[in-house]
Specification:
By secondary structure, this protein is of the alpha/beta class.
């Protein structure tokens, strides 16, 4: 099966969304994951129809499909308001043409129970709108692969699944846990994958490195996911480089790395 390989706008976060899309398309990608650009995620729960349309048009002008959107919960508002806000985010993701809503969980233990309840209430609405929620390892409630599996069990809805982010598994545990170790048990539940590497120097983790130059064994991770039944898209989130030219070279190199492994 041919996997979709997209790129997030994070490597080009200092540029506008439209500029980021141009560079991502030039690097050979077909899909874009909408992250923050110039300090702002262009589509959020409170975005206007015009803002959503502008984002959709910018992606289309570059020849890209905006198939993933990063989102977040607002559990500090209380459960009912947070559910309403998240459902509006789902509606806006659908209006953008997005299939995948990337969620980072929560680091506030007081919100853990409400987080799962929010997702149980939001997942059916997501399914109705043609959107799938995919939860990545991001510390807190989603620190480990087992945490992700537990979350999948607790929400228990086909519109909620796991995003495998090998770099974050290393980053948030400072290298104590490895993404290769549990890939087999996670694979049947993984709906999307983030391509991100990580290094740890003197106990300090850093994900702003080009995949293949850090600690992640991408051959093992990606082959393990595919052999376990993973059929979803993959999105490059981080590469090394400080200039646009360097970033361009590294996004192209990462696309080749992933393509070579999957073919």
């Amino acid at each position: 099966m041919k996997h979709t390989i997209g790129c997030t706008t994070r490597p080009y976060g200092s540029l506008t969304f439209a500029e980021a899309c141009e560079h991502i398309a030039a690097a050979g990608y077909t899909d874009v994951a909408v992250f923050a650009n110039a300090g702002q995620i262009p589509v959020q729960a409170d975005s206007t129809e015009a803002e959503i349309a502008d984002t959709r048009k910018a992606a289309a002008a570059a020849g890209l499909t905006p198939s993933m959107l990063i989102g977040s919960t607002k559990l500090n508002l209380g459960l009912e308001a947070a559910v309403d806000d998240y459902k509006r985010l789902i509606d806006n993701a659908a209006a953008l043409g997005t299939k995948w809503l990337l969620d980072c969980g929560t680091g506030n233990e007081a919100h853990y129970a409400d987080y799962f309840e929010l997702m149980r209430q939001a997942a059916p609405h997501a399914a109705e709108m043609g959107v799938n929620i995919t939860m990545k390892p991001h510390g807190g409630i989603s620190l480990t692969v087992q945490d992700l599996i537990d979350a999948d069990d607790k929400v228990n809805h086909p519109a909620f699944g796991i995003c495998y982010d090998p770099g974050n598994i290393i980053y948030y545990t400072k290298g104590d846990l490895r993404p290769e170790t549990n890939v087999a048990i996670a694979a049947p539940r993984v709906t999307t994958t983030i391509i991100k590497d990580c290094v740890v120097e003197d106990g300090v983790p850093d994900v702003m490195v080009t995949p293949g130059e850090g600690l992640v064994d991408f051959e093992t991770v990606l082959n393990g996911l595919v052999s376990g039944g993973f059929e979803g898209p993959l999105y490059v989130e981080c590469v090394g480089g400080t200039t646009v030219d360097e970033i361009n070279r590294n996004t192209k190199a990462t696309l080749k790395l992933v393509t070579d492994i999957l073919t």
